[in-house]
Amino acid sequence: MAIAAAFSMMSAFFMGGLYVAGALGAIALILMKFFNISNPNLWNIMGNRAWEGSTNFILIAIPLFILMGELVLRSGVAERMYNVLSRWLVFIPGGLIHSNIASCAVFAACAGSSVATAATISRVALPSFRQRGYNERLVIGSLAAGGTLGILIPPSIGLVLYGLIVGESIGRLFLAGFIPGVILAVTFMLMIVIAAKIWPGIAPKEEMVTWRLRFIGLFSLLPIGFLIFAVLGSIYFGFATPTEAAAAGVTGAFALTLAGNSGMLLLSLLAGLVRRFPVLPRVAKIRLVDFQSGRPVLPGDIRKNFDDMVRILKESFLSMARTSAMILLILMAAFTLQFAFAAVRISVDMAEWIAAFELTQLQLILVLVVFYLILGTFMESYSMMLTTLPILIPVLSDANVDKVWFGIIMVILLEAAQISPPQGMALYVLHGARRDSDQELSEYEGALIQSGTINDVFVGVLPFMVCMFVVIGLVIAFPELATWLPDQAKGGR
Q: Distance between CA 448 and CA 438 in Å, rounded?
């Protein structure tokens, strides 16, 4: 009875458009009110459980990783990164489309969010593709699919939430997501190569770039590369917890933002100070004078630069606050729902019901894959995870399923939900970005450019969803793809 009521309420609340946190909290309260044995202590315990879960130290990593991504987003590094990667990938069949995947993969290692990754890279990439004659559906599909790497390639907010719900190490989950994330990105690119070979018209041939320009461009990627290595390497080698690594990442992202928006100004000011040192050789002073004269500091430059940095920090912190508040409210409601499911025995009853089918571990995983694929067509990814995990935890424990391994499978399924018609959030983000890009291009060329429909986006992501199914199959067939790296890490816990 309680199970039927719980699922009926879920369907009604979500289809009615009720906010996720409100829906989860309302379901928990109704279940406790009408199906709980009259034990007033359970209400206090439920409140304590929600509070303790939502005040866990590891949760600090969520706003920190979000802030890190927001700062990197505004540092200007995305455009430089895209241009550099395009120089190296332009010779592969499919041309610049590969740059979408590669840029999304690299940016995902900073942003931790699928939607933020897709939105950022699309702003950089979309303006040039229409002019070059690329197949629009494949371009949009590659951006949507590439953006989903943000939930798998660490640092991942999705993996943080999963680890908190199931009680698994966040560091191990981060490491587990790395190899499958790289494999997924490579699979996307391989599919683009095959498509370009079969239908050459979808991607025109690009002019080759000299090796000199390619290697010069790599220097501009060193800061972002160092930032990613510092964050992930500190976790891998056991130097820092995910929360500490996130704090270091925020510091590095702030430095990138400062350098990207104030670099030349600071260098010019520094040159002016250094050349006044009396011990400095005359030749060096002449060089510094030449450098400073080529980049003069005007009276209003410092004030303008200061105002720009204040604006960037304000926007970054406000965005971080909005996103973090949403996630933490949902998480608190999820902890409440988890307790309610346990109190009214829904979790136990579901585990016993599934156990009655006597499924093997592989059969259980395949059933859950189909279940999440269906659920993803009408439910948002985080809602899927936080709603269903409280029920699945005892089921997975009874079947002796490795929670790190299953976490990676689940996150890839959540990725598929992000681009699964008709609910996938990334699809609508990309459709909106495309319309904005076409509007800007129309104003620039003085002629109206008609944007395609959302159906073009739906069609464009289908080949990439097939790639996701292939990678899910590989992770199921070879669990070591997810478990090997965490087992090797010194700082796995």
A: 8
